[in-house]
Amino acid sequence: MSPVGHALHDRFERVCRNELQRLRRKTASLTDSERAQVDALALEVTRRLAVSLDAAVAAPGRSGMASVVMRLFAVVPPSDKESQCG
């Protein structure tokens, strides 16, 4: 996965985990095992979305698409993220 793909995956995973946490009350009747299965499924969907989007962005002739996708999903470009951490 490209740096853009990793950034998308990180963003999608954060959103997914936040939503799963927000929905805890609605899923309170689930057992721990059932909740773990729901969480794993949701996280797998987010991973697959990031991989698919990364492949689409990396396809030949789509060089300008990465910045649009990153802006659309509020993803910090990998080089900018490193400078923000330091």
In short:
By secondary structure, the protein is mainly alpha-helical. The chain has 4 helices and no strands.
How would you portray this structure in words?
With 86 residues, this protein is an all-alpha fold. It has one domain. The protein is 73% helix and 0% strand. It contains four helices and no strands. Helix 1 runs antiparallel to helix 2 (32-58). The longest helix has 27 residues, at 32-58. It is elongated, with a radius of gyration of 15 Å. Mean pLDDT is 84; it is low at 82-86.
The gross shape turns out to be: elongated
User: Helix segment count?
Assistant: 4
Whole-number total of structural domains: 1
- Overall mean confidence score, pLDDT: 84
Q: Which regions have little confidence, pLDDT < 50, spanning 5+ residues?
A: 82-86
Secondary-structure element string: HHHH
Query: How many β-strand stretches?
Result: 0
Provide the structure class: mainly alpha
Fraction of residues in helix: over 70%
Q: What percentage of the residues does DSSP assign to strands (E)?
A: under 5%
End-to-end C-alpha gap: 24 Å
Radius of gyration: 15 Å
Tell me about the largest β-sheet.
Answer: none
Question: Which descriptors would you attach to this protein?
Answer:
single chain; 86 residues; mainly alpha; 4 helices; 73% helix; 0% strand; disordered C terminus
List the helices and strands and how they pair.
Elements: H1 3-22, H2 32-58, H3 65-72, H4 78-85
Helix pairs in contact: 1-2
